[in-house]
TrEMBL record:
Source species of the chain: Helicobacter marmotae
Domain of life: Bacteria
Ranges for domain Cytidyltransferase-like: 4-139
NCBIfam families assigned to the protein according to its UniProt record, in alphabetical order: PEP_mutase
Membership in a protein family: Belongs to the isocitrate lyase/PEP mutase superfamily. PEP mutase family.
Entry EC number(s): 5.4.2.9
Protein name per UniProt: phosphoenolpyruvate mutase
Alphabetized PANTHER family for the sequence: PHOSPHOENOLPYRUVATE CARBOXYLASE (PTHR42905), PHOSPHOENOLPYRUVATE PHOSPHOMUTASE (PTHR42905:SF7)
SUPFAM superfamilies hit by this protein: Nucleotidylyl transferase, Phosphoenolpyruvate/pyruvate domain
Keywords annotated in UniProt: Isomerase, Pyruvate
Lineage, broadest ranks: Bacteria, Pseudomonadati, Campylobacterota, Epsilonproteobacteria, Campylobacterales
């Protein structure tokens, strides 16, 4: 079980398992044998994240709950969706599972249980009828519709990093774009793939306001946008803070972001007036002194209150053509200063220099999360980046760029035809828009 929200369906399954254990004890005439146990395989966060969203409570919290149910004798971790490992370890007399897995994505898991029990000749599969009208997935969806607390949202990114790889993060610059990001999903090989969180980009936040990307939008204005996003969504958000400003300003920003419920902030090691990184050396850009940037990271870490808030250091060495050695030197220094993650950036069309950096960094540091933004080298898949050692893949400006194309096409079409009939197929229906927004219908 995931056992995030305990409901009557869970209790019914456990009661049936308890009845089978009691029957075994009653039939046992050898008093020297131990009593039959009901052992619960509790899915870990990693196992759950492999097929659906993280539960509200982490594994230890869920374990503390189910361990106190009198129907259960022992709780063990279920590390994967496959039961085979635990079956081989326990050699159970019975495996009890609701019959809801006879169809859908768990049919292969069910067949593996049957095959393993037959191979080991150790037990029997018991499949009670699934309790009608009760669904953990629907209960979780209903709970998320009500909302999520600030601390719960803030901690989600750190939990996701522990549970799955890669995390796919999509740029959102408004509440409606965040709703699109939150509700978009596809199915690959029976597994649901969706975006794991949001990216608040300084580029798209300023551009959506018609302002230049030079840190012209102040923190308070950007926090207003984030609050609007948080009012209607439940996923974590990473904040693009550009250089972070002066050390004293960055300390203030960390406290404000953390208080709002932002999970992480990314700051880049440049100084002076903000210039977009994809311009590289075509414009004058100055990289920050290593020690001064380390001091900023350390000050930010000291300022935060919770353990889950993350400060990620963005390295511009490859953008400014300073080479791998400089990028790696900075990366290890920033981690030593307290950075919770490293973002390596590149404007090359090929991912080669990013992959080279990841390989060299991972040779010395296997744990610190690596963030990549494949805007330029967009042919590589997220799974390939994960296999190379990246943890977070950010699609940094795509929703805003897409909206420009769509809006321009519709605006021009209305003028060309002098009416809107011909461009209706390029527009989402009003009904579909209203159904996307919570509380409208």
């Amino acid at each position: 079980m995931a056992a995030d929200l305990i409901h009557p369906g869970h209790i019914n399954i456990l009661k049936i398992a308890r009845d089978y254990a009691n029957a075994l004890d009653k039939a046992n005439t050898d008093s020297s044998l131990p009593k039959a146990e009901v052992v619960l395989g509790l899915l870990t966060d990693k196992a759950i994240a492999s097929y659906k969203r993280l539960p509200y409570m982490n594994y230890e919290q869920r374990k503390a709950v189910v361990e106190n149910l009198s129907l259960i004798d022992r709780v063990i971790p279920q590390e994967t969706l496959s039961y085979e490992g635990n079956i081989r370890a326990l050699l159970p007399r019975y495996v009890v599972h609701g019959d809801d897995w006879k169809s859908g994505t768990q049919t292969k898991t069910r067949q593996n249980v049957i095959d393993t029990l037959q191979e080991l000749a150790c037990g029997e599969l018991i499949e009670p009828q699934y309790t009608p009208g009760i669904s953990s997935t629907q209960l979780n969806a209903d709970a998320r519709a009500i909302g999520i607390s600030t601390n719960a949202r803030l901690s989600l990114l750190a939990r996701l990093l522990e549970a799955k790889k890669p995390l796919r993060i999509l740029e959102t610059h408004s509440a409606i774009s965040a709703l699109i990001a939150q509700n978009t999903s596809v199915t690959h090989n029976g597994q649901t793939v969706e975006f794991d969180g949001f990216w608040s980009s300084s580029l798209t936040d300023s551009t959506s306001r018609g302002k230049p990307d030079i840190e012209a939008v102040e923190l308070s204005s950007r926090l207003n946008t984030i609050n609007e996003i948080f009012e209607v969504t439940s996923k974590p958000l990473i904040y693009d803070a550009d250089t972070g400003g002066k050390l004293e300003h960055f300390v203030f920003s960390v406290r404000s972001l953390e208080r709002t419920g932002v999970s992480a902030v990314i700051i880049e090691d440049k100084t002076g007036l903000k210039k977009n990184s994809l311009l590289g050396n075509e414009v004058e850009q100055t990289q920050e002194d290593i020690q001064e940037f380390c001091d900023k990271i350390t000050a930010g870490k000291r300022a935060q209150i919770t353990k889950d808030f993350m400060i990620i250091a963005r390295i511009e060495s490859l953008i400014l053509e300073k080479g791998q050695a400089d990028a790696l030197k900075r990366a290890f220094a920033y981690v030593e200063a307290g950075a919770d993650g490293i973002m390596i950036h590149s404007r090359q069309k090929s991912p080669d220099e990013v992959l080279e950096f990841i390989k060299a960094f991972r040779a010395k540091d296997s744990k610190t999360p690596i963030v990549v933004v494949p805007t330029s080298f967009n042919a590589i898949r997220a799974e390939e980046l994960a296999e190379a050692g990246a943890n977070i893949v950010i699609y940094a400006n795509h929703l805003l760029r897409a909206s420009f194309v769509a809006m321009q096409k519709v605006a021009q079409g209305i003028l060309e035809y002098d009416r809107s009939k011909e461009i209706e197929s390029s527009c989402m229906s009003v009904k579909d828009i209203l159904s996307l927004i919570p509380g409208t219908i």
